[in-house]
Description:
alpha/beta, 14 helices, binds flavin-adenine dinucleotide, 5-stranded parallel β-sheet
Amino acid sequence: MADSPYHLVVIGGGPGGYVAAIRAAQLGFRTALVEKNANLGGTCLNVGCIPSKALLAASEHYHFAQQELASYGVQVQGVTLDLATMMARKNKVVNQLAKGVEFLLKKNKIDLIRGEAFFTAPGKISVRTADGSESPVETDRILIASGSTPVALPFLPFDGQAVVSSDQGISFDQVPESLIVIGGGAIGLELGSVWNRLGSKVTVVEFLPKIAAFCDEEISTHLQRSLEKQGITFLTETKVVSGSVEGGRIRLSVDRGETTTELEAEKVLVAVGRRPNTASLGIEKSGLQLTDKGRIAVDHHWKTSVSSVYAIGDVVDGPMLAHKAEDEGVAVVERMVGKPGHVNYAVCPSVVYTAPEAASCGLTEEQARSGGIEYKKGFYRFFSHGRALASGMNEGFVKILADAKTDRVIGCHIVSSVASELIATCVLLMEFGGSSEDLARTIHAHPTMSEALKEAALAVDGRSIHS
Ligand code: FAD
Ligand code: NAD
């Protein structure tokens, strides 16, 4: 072991893997990272978080210029869409950030091994390069951060044209006249919003009774109404049972209760979840145990069933989120050197980047109720909030849930155009075990959107000033 050229080899250069590699190098490990794709940054940077946010921002500007700018007294004529430029801008952002990750690896003296890593025996890996050659890589420890891939429906395989995953749903070269989105989760809502704003007739089909099922009920309800007003059609409690491509168009049969209906569109975006990337790892030779959902089984220090092999990010249990992968990446490496690396999963924010955005942290009201937790609720709407009105951002609300006995904040749920930024205060408060009283007595700059957090905290005790 001591003679291995590397203390750690990381498989996968996504947010879990590259962050872990950097932390390992900071802690003095001789580190290598194996990545099979040309670009570093993984799903998040190449086909996930970043390109989707670039398109969300661009499409929001287009929609705003077309439909809302005039109400601010700014008249613009002849607003047209240049999709090619929008896509080129998105690609430029992605490539700039991917180069940035490569620079960070170099700066931290991490060896980048280009190729596909696979297990040859428990604790032993080789790398297959583009020319097909295979070479073993000696290392004391292996960290798997191989991420995840879109799931297809068994009767509707991806063809990259009419039946697509998010990988293609961020790169259409024309706005489809109509788009069916299967799945009302984060991907369906975000990419559905992009194409709706750019002119597609978007229909979201969701199996469950509500969209954004992981969110608090009031958030899901508000979000659905808001997106409906923007023109998206939702079919909830609806199951897609079959589908085919005929003459380049997609036809789906969907079951709604007792009735079966046919839907037709130019394209269908299947966004029904992602599966862990284990297949390419040669799992049968690895000795690794998988969970019943096919993820790599790890203990609470991200150790697998094989000593010296660890796993983090989308390939292990938990929410498939970039910040969760990153925090696990730091913590697992700190554990390897005996530091107290830790991830507080109870305080992991989640955001849907629609307009308005929906952001949550901690328990939903339904979870608190079903867990028998007595709680108080503080609710504040942006409706008549000064900064929100002045900025034209007065849609949405803040909801804070605090333990009825201790006043400790147990959940925070926000709908607002800046919910993704506002939630950070709640995350910090909850990380420190703060109370609604702490938030209510904290000075917030006026006029800011963040004052709504203070008002919601005051409302927990029935003393909101502005509602
Ligand atoms: P990944 O990012 O998937 O990276 C894994 C890497 O491993 C890849 O580069 C892959 O090529 C490489 N790899 C796999 N197998 C091998 C092998 N055998 N050898 C070598 N390399 C290998 N999350 C958020 O938190 N916020 C968001 O806004 C958000 N938006 C998203 C939008 C979309 C459209 C999608 C699809 C996802 C989004 N996510 C978002 C989820 C986020 O992208 C993932 O949770 C995150 O990328 C997981 O990080 P990871 O490092 O575990 O894996
Ligand atoms: P998801 O699990 O979030 O949502 C999938 C939805 O599809 C669920 O609501 C499910 O009920 C529905 N569904 C499943 N099968 C169906 C069927 N046959 N018919 C109709 N509906 C069906 O998955 P996703 O939206 O594909 O996202 C994948 C992962 O990527 C998620 O874990 C998510 O956390 C992550 N992601 C996060 C963000 C973000 O943080 N903003 C953005 C995009 C993706």
